[in-house]
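re: ur question from yesterday

yeah so i grabbed the chain u mentioned. its 347 aa long if i counted rite. heres the sequnce exactly as i have it in my notes:
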Amino acid sequence: MKALTFHGPGRRVWGEVPDPVLADPEDAIVRVDAVTICGTDLHILKGDVPEVAEGRVLGHEAVGTVVATGRGVRTVAAGDRVLVSCISACGRCASCRQTAYGQCTGGGGWILGHLVDGTQAEYVRTPFADTSLHRLPPEVTDEAALMLADILPTSFEVGVRNGRVGPGDTVVVVGAGPIGLATIATARLYSPARIVAVDPAESRLKAAGQAGADSLLTPGEADRAAADGLGREGRGADVAIEAVGLPETFEQCTRLVRPGGRVANVGVHGRPATLHLEDLWIRNITITTGLVDTSSTPLLLDMLAAGRLPSGDLITHRFGLDEMQEGYDVFADPARTGALKVAFFRT
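ran it thru and got these structure tokens back, copy pasting raw so excuse formatting
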């Protein structure tokens, strides 16, 4: 089969690799029908994730069709159309029993495209199929379901839920890329009074407005708004959600939030950020970080099937599977291409 493989910082190859085979009774082999690229894949290609071995098939988000299962798999069967979750869960360890699947100690967690071969391929072996694949209802398209593999549960769990967004809150989302837009969309489920999107790119601010943001600010405008009074009584935002993964955007979030407010970091950081505890401790600021657990995926899937969530609206570019290299170039240069999320489909 063909797949996209990592060969050291800045080097990726679309070419022939061995077909995946069942290695464990709980495995399934899935034919990839739709797949996408995550910002984390770009971090890998920059060398920010040293655990990724040379030759690894990248990718951790896909929709596909089950073609084979191990003898221990009970909930999916050949022919089932499924969502491949970005997180694999053994379902038995202490973390999984607390639905903290991202912290699985039984061989799961974020392993696809990281510690085992991933989804940017014609076929993928999926460990722990019973707990890591989700059967899709017919009314949910491949394109719509693709956003549930990572981006929507990540934004919802690590951003909105960790930030404890509530009715009447002022919520600032720093970064209007795919994660930021999904954060805006899912924050609206909790009826905040105001959602402020912050991004330097005019095209992404426009997309943030379409996703439901009430105010659109550049980073400089956001700092000036904070100085003039952002949120109730001019005290700052109740919740600031970091959706980029840069030191400067994290530090800006800590400036935009009110005393007693919450900063929820969603972005993947490749460089250290300065934590100004000398300023933050007296303001009672809560800071959360996290890897998605995907415990919310069944809920989000139900909402998607009911038409309560945006999904395919985030995809701006579509390609065939064999156009993977071109798609990477488009996704990696959003300033030139206007890309938010790219998707690849079996033709």
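noticed a couple things. The chain has a mean pLDDT of 95. also The two ends are 14 Å apart (CA to CA).
anyway ttyl
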